Amino acid sequence: MNEVAQTALAAHGSDMSLLGLFWQAGFIVKLVMIGLLAASVWTWTIIFDKLARYAAFRRQLNNFENNFWSGQSLEELYQTLSDRKTSGMGALFVAAMREWKKSFEKGARSPIGLQQRIEKAMDVTLAREMDGLESRLGFLATVGSAAPFVGLFGTVVGIMTSFQAIAASEQTSLAVVAPGIAEALLATAIGLVAAIPAVVAYNKLTADAGKLGMRLEAFADEFSAILSRQIDERSSQAR
Length: 239
Fold this sequence. Notes:
With 239 residues, the chain is an all-alpha fold. It has one domain. It is built from 8 helices and no strands. Helix 4 crosses helix 5. The chain is rod-shaped and about 100 Å long.
């Protein structure tokens, strides 16, 4: 009788609780379960962190919009935001205003070139903001798609171990088969426990990030139009 079969046979009359099944499982199945549990813990960490960050990001967007449309001059708002680290619409605003001021300080004469540089500065900032919003969402997608298969791998290994025990003992009673099958199915269950929240959270957080991104894009387009009008006014006055 080989060692694998002996391990499975030792499960006769053993503890059938979840913890007991874990401790009785073979090395490979244990490794699969531990990996899936670690992935599940990290998944929930990302979920709670993203929910908190997105909520704070929304509040920040609302506060900035209130300040931006309050009638405060662009120069005053820029002076307020330029001295501190900003994100979201504030980052877009600072990037555009910084390019605006640099261009006029250097005596830029091409309105079209200035407009393009401002739009480019906001595009780069927008891409950076979206990278921050979508960071670590790929891990959720990976767990959601891979965890069931990893759990299934543990289940297959566990069932193979059970069959080896049956062949070695030459018995087909439920007492021989049940412990090994239960251990094997536990791996699949943990895989689903890790995958289901990851898939649901990925879909929700991706949608939330998309909505926040749309708000940023809308502000970038609107602010670009405002600056474009001011550029045209200055060009007319210069003539």
